[in-house]
Specification:
The protein is mainly α and 331 residues long. It has 13 helices and 5 strands. It binds adenosine monophosphate and tryptophan (TRP).
Length: 331
């Protein structure tokens, strides 16, 4: 039997998840579980590159685990773990830091954007963030990394580092490929369809959270920015409507064409009303399950402990090879 390929992905526990995170990332993880050997991490080491309140970080980490499970990640099929539980991530990062070029790291879009926002707290962790991400991926000999469009550049860096290490020493890391879905790869802000939907948006009408109540979802979609053309068409001239069609398509699994023809001649009112309904119904089962998991902290603990053990075994094996090739003496 051919061995299953490996998938790795992660999300930061930095507060509530938006439907952008869900559509662009987590939802795509679910379908991969049967055919791949999947590792899904809660990347708390990444989260502290911006200041965190310790008790909030603890809460957000468990919250995210509950959301992973509520969305359909299954610990029987996939390895679900908390990044800081597997120390090899930090250890490999050090080695790869010494092989990363300042120039390349300073060209990372996410770094440039985040450093603009936090000039007075420009910590080195923000700069080497993508190296930690490369370590996450490379430790597991990952074939595929399902992420949203915004992470593509970081993936490119992970590939470069893998190749650089393999060339300098000898074949050690698998060179990973990104897996980016076309529909929903980039869900935009409901208030400003030129920028991506993000939970760090100052205007809360710009995003929908996975745990938003039906009333709030209705209100946010009603207020979503459209245009004066008044037609439900998927076009770059109508970025607001295009984004809403993407969300509609992601939740209903209807194609763009089906949606366009369904609303031909109809105004935005009906379209938005239906969209709100689809999103609300799509999120309802996740919200119900989330509540159940949050009531069962013992189960959550069991999941992350089991996950860490499985992840640790694989990660250690790669790190041992790396240390040996670099010239460290085995203990
Ligand atoms: P973050 O919340 O930035 O840590 O992102 C977690 C995951 O969600 C990554 O795979 C991102 O690519 C994805 N993601 C975040 N925001 C969006 C968005 N607006 N549209 C699509 N994917 C997104
Ligand atoms: N940097 C990713 C983000 O912000 C999260 C992440 C960390 C990740 N490590 C990863 C994603 C490894 C995929 C693979 O979305």
């Amino acid at each position: 039997m051919e061995e299953k390929k490996t998938v790795f992905s992660g999300v930061q526990p930095s507060g509530a998840l938006t439907i952008g995170n869900y559509i662009g990332s987590i939802r795509n993880w679910i379908d991969l579980q049967d055919d791949y050997n999947c590792f899904y991490s809660i990347v708390d080491l990444h989260a502290i590159t911006v200041p965190q309140v310790p008790k909030d970080l603890r809460k957000n980490t468990l919250d995210l685990l509950a959301l992973y499970l509520a969305s359909g990640l299954d610990p029987e099929k996939s390895t679900i773990f908390i990044q800081s539980h597997v120390s090899a991530h930090a250890e490999l990062t050090w080695v790869l830091n010494t092989m990363s070029y300042m120039g390349q790291l300073s060209r990372m879009t996410q770094f440039k954007e985040k450093s603009k926002r936090s000039e007075e707290n420009l910590n080195a962790g923000l700069f080497t963030y993508p190296v930690l991400m490369a370590s996450d991926i490379l430790l597991y000999q990952t074939d595929l990394v399902p992420v949203g469009e915004d992470q593509k550049q970081h993936l490119e860096l992970a590939r470069d580092l893998a190749e650089r290490f393999n060339n300098r020493y000898s074949e050690t890391f698998k060179v990973p490929d990104p897996l980016i879905k076309k529909v929903g790869a980039r869900i935009m802000s409901l208030q400003n369809p030129e920028s991506k939907m993000s939970k760090s948006d100052n205007n809360e009408n710009g995003y929908i959270l996975l745990l938003d109540s039906p009333d709030i979802i209705n209100r946010k979609i009603k207020r979503a920015v459209t245009d004066s053309l008044g037609q439900v068409k998927y076009s770059d001239e109508q970025p607001g409507v295009k984004n809403l069609i993407n969300i509609y398509s992601a939740f209903s699994r209807n194609s763009i064409e089906e949606i366009e023809s369904k609303y031909e001649g109809a105004g935005y009112g009906q379209f938005k009303k239906d969209l709100a309904e689809i999103v609300i119904e799509g999120l309802r089962p996740i919200q119900t399950k989330y509540d159940d998991y949050m009531k069962n902290k013992d189960y959550l603990k069991e999941v992350y402990k089991g996950g860490a053990e499985k992840a640790e075994r694989v990660a250690r094996k790669t790190l041992r090879k790396v240390y040996k090739k670099v010239g460290f003496i085995p203990r």
